[in-house]
Structures are given as structure tokens and as C-alpha cells.
Specification:
- With 394 residues, the chain is of the alpha/beta class.
- The protein has two domains: 130 residues, Aspartate Aminotransferase, domain 1 (Alpha-Beta Complex), CATH 3.90.1150.10; 234 residues, Type I PLP-dependent aspartate aminotransferase-like (Major domain) (Aspartate Aminotransferase, domain 2), CATH 3.40.640.
- The chain has 14 helices and 15 strands.
- The strands form three sheets. A seven-stranded mixed beta sheet has the order 4-10-9-8-7-5-6, sandwiched between helices. It has a four-stranded mixed beta sheet with strand order 1-2-3-13.
- α2 packs antiparallel against α11.
- The chain is globular, with a radius of gyration of 22 Å.
- The structure holds pyridoxal-5'-phosphate.
């Protein structure tokens, strides 16, 4: 064991412990759903991305169980060796249909998908223009590529246009944005981004991890939400959030894009194939997400109800209509204290503070699901009402 490394790590951990404190994962029990077990208690779960309530869907779970018996669990091989089954192609076709693209390619996660896109599609003569609040996996994916990088301030279209104009010498300019930003729940200004992409002959890439299955009448995502179907060149997304499908990610787009990724994208090639039972579950989820618009209607109704209730209680709620509801509790440990009080009242939420959000922008992120019952939402609102005592004491 290398004592020099361990000494440095222990010193840094001690500093972190004394400073911002160490991150430690909450251990949760029971199936993921509208409620969840924590330390033997059942809490209303306002902290997961299970927007459509599919994580506990019995139709999906039955399909996964049957597939597990028929096909076993893992494949112990990559897709390019003996790891491809029919279900992978069926799922790729199902995803392409859901998001309205010509074709799609599966990855182990959307994190992997985002790591695999830029290096595969771009070279040193190209420029990536990236929103300042883009997801960590996009930032890392851009780092892995040889293309030049320009970051514009979050949602600042003037700055983006300046960068586009300044990179006129590039072979390709690729604009990349989250469809929905997970900290504020705000939706990218897609029609303006499309207009800029057209004006400058730029490629438009959207990470729709918080939008696939959630936004748009058929759950196709951000583009459908704005009536801009077909406007996104490269779409990435996750199977692990609204689709509740265990894990997995994808890239969707024109056949030439997908085929190129299949040939050269390293996180696609150099890793094990998605376990077939997971793919079976994901395909069931994709079909349900597309075929049951009433889930999105219930989600919208639940979201509107809780937004209204929190506003009526006097909380500062960032405007929007995505099921991510940021409840601003600015300064010091207020957000953490309110989150602790809520847990005491039977509600699971997490406080977000620096460096995840800027200092002074501390908040609790509430995430609503179609599976929350009226009683559970009432309980949550009551808990937020009681937690106001924390505000009064601060
Ligand atoms: C969650 C998330 C990811 C990662 O998705 P996984 O499939 O869990 O790896 C990527 N991008 C965004 C915007 C996300 O919110």
C-alpha cells in the first residue's frame, strides 16, 4: 500500500469533513415508488425521477421476470461480440419511435451515451458550444473529444450567437443543451436554439434525460413540447428516469449518425451489452410511456397541485411546469434544516447546496410522480406547512 497516497487522501478527507462535510448515501429500502422506506419508516418519496410511476409498474416487472427465466441475467459480452439479442434491436426501434427519430443506439447509461457522442462525431476542426449548466456527463464527453469547446452562460442566446459567429472557421459547430435542466426544472429555449442552429448551419444536440416520456403529448420530449418535432439532430436520453427501466441510455437521430456511433463510439463498443431482462423491461416501459398519455396528465395535475400548495404556504417556488419543483431556501443551512424537518414529518426530499448550486441559491428539489396519490400529496403539503417553523426560527 502506498502510504504517500493514503496520507494525502486522509488529509483531504479530513479537510472536507471539517469544511462542507462528507457526502454519504442514504440507504433506502423497499421498491422504488411513491413511498419508500428509510430507517424502518415509510416516507412519501419526492426525491426520485420516477415521473411516470413506472419503477413499480407490475406489467413491466412481470415482463422482466419472464425474460429473466427465459434468457438469464447478463450476457458477459459486448454488443459487437456475442452480446446482441433481438430484444436490443427491438428496444432501439421502440426508442426511435418514442422520440420520433430514424434510429437509436443503446448504451449502458445516458452518462455513457454522452461520453460516446462527441469523440465519435467530431474532430479537431470542429467546435462544441455548450450551455454552462449542462449535465456533468456532457461536460466529460466534450473533454474526451478533440473538438474545441466554448461554454456559453446558461440560456444566454446572445452569448451563444457570439460564439457561433466567432467560430466560423470550424468544419462543424455543434450546440449542446440539456432539454430540461435538473436544478431549476427549466426547459431549453428550443425554438431559438433551432433558429440559431439553422442560421449558422450548426448541429443541435439535446440531452432529454428529464424529458423523454415526460414532455410532449406522446412523451417524445422537449422538441414535441414545443411542436418542433424533427428539429434535433442528436438526441440523448436515459431509460432510468421517467421510464423507470432499471438502467440504460440511448442516442437517437438520423441513421447515418447512429450507424457512425455503432462503428466507432467507444462506450458502445468496449463494454458489456445491456442485460436482456432490462431491455425487455425498458421496451415495455417505452410502449407504456407512449401509449398511456393519461400518465402525463396525472403527472401534470399532481405537479400543478403541489406547486400551488407550496406557493400558498409562502414558499418561493421557481416558476415552470416540469415535475421538478425547486423550493428556494436561500442562505446557510436553511434548505438542509427544512429537508431534515420534512423527513421527520414523513417526506423524503434532498437539499441542494453549494457547489451543486451556486451559494445563495440553496434549495430543496421536489420531484413529483404520476403515482403520487392525493393523500400523499396532502401529507407532503402538510409537512411543508409544519416545516415553516424552521423558517420562523432562522
Ligand atoms: C441523469 C442524467 C444523465 C445520466 O443518466 P444515466 O442513464 O443515469 O446515466 C445524463 N444527463 C442528464 C441531463 C441527466 O439528468
Amino acid at each position: 500500500m502506498n502510504a504517500t497516497l493514503l496520507h494525502r487522501l486522509r488529509t483531504e478527507l479530513d479537510e472536507r469533513r471539517r469544511g462542507p462535510g462528507l457526502r454519504s448515501d442514504l440507504v433506502v429500502s423497499g421498491a422504488q415508488g411513491p413511498t419508500v422506506g428509510v430507517s424502518g419508516e415509510t416516507l412519501v418519496n419526492l426525491a426520485s425521477n420516477d415521473y411516470l410511476g413506472l419503477a413499480g409498474d407490475s406489467e413491466i416487472l412481470d415482463a422482466v421476470q419472464r425474460a429473466l427465466r427465459e434468457m438469464g441475467l447478463g450476457l458477459t459480452a459486448g454488443r459487437v461480440l456475442c452480446g446482441t439479442r433481438e430484444i436490443h434491436g427491438q428496444l432501439e426501434a421502440g426508442i426511435a419511435e418514442l422520440v420520433g427519430a430514424e434510429d437509436a443506439l443503446l448504451y449502458s447509461s445516458c452518462f455513457d451515451a454522452n461520453l460516446g457522442v462527441f469523440d465519435a462525431l467530431l474532430g479537431p476542426d470542429d467546435v462544441v458550444l455548450s450551455d454552462g449548466l449542462n449535465h456533468a456527463s456532457l461536460i466529460d464527453g466534450i473533454r474526451l473529444a478533440s473538438a474545441r469547446r466554448r461554454v456559453f452562460a446558461h440560456a444566454n442566446l446572445d452569448e451563444l450567437e457570439r460564439h457561433l459567429a466567432e467560430s466560423a472557421d470550424a468544419r462543424h459547430r455543434l450546440i449542446v443543451t440539456d432539454g430540461v435542466f435538473s436544478m431549476d426544472g427549466d426547459i431549453a429555449a428550443l425554438s431559438q436554439l433551432c433558429a440559431l442552429a439553422q442560421r449558422y448551419d450548426a448541429v443541435l444536440m439535446v440531452d432529454d434525460s428529464h424529458a423523454t416520456g415526460v414532455l410532449g403529448a406522446t412523451g417524445a420530449g422537449t422538441a414535441e413540447h414545443f411542436g418542433l418535432e424533427g428539429s434535433v439532430d442528436v438526441l440523448t436520453g436515459t431509460l432510468g428516469k421517467a421510464l423507470g427501466a432499471g438502467a440504460g441510455g440511448f442516442v437517437a437521430g438520423d441513421r447515418a449518425i447512429v450507424e457512425t456511433l455503432r462503428q466507432v463510439s467507444r462506450p458502445y463498443i468496449f463494454t458489456n451489452a445491456m442485460a436482456p431482462p432490462l431491455a425487455v423491461g425498458a421496451l415495455a416501459a417505452v410502449r407504456i410511456a407512449r401509449g398511456r398519455p393519461e400518465l402525463r396528465e396525472r403527472l401534470a395535475a399532481n405537479t400543478a397541485w403541489l406547486r400551488m400548495a407550496l406557493g400558498d404556504l409562502g414558499y418561493e417556488v421557481l416558476p415552470g411546469d416540469h415535475p421538478i419543483i425547486p423550493v428556494m431556501l436561500r442562505g446557510g443551512s436553511l434548505a438542509r434544516d427544512v429537508a431534515a424537518a420534512l423527513r421527520h414529518e414523513g417526506v423524503l426530499v434532498f437539499a441542494l447546496s453549494h457547489p451543486v448550486v451556486p451559494a445563495g441559491e440553496e434549495r430543496i428539489r421536489v420531484q413529483v410522480s404520476a403515482s403520487h396519490t392525493a393523500d400523499q400529496l396532502e401529507l407532503a403539503a402538510t409537512a411543508f406547512g409544519r416545516a415553516r417553523a424552521v423558517l420562523a426560527g432562522s
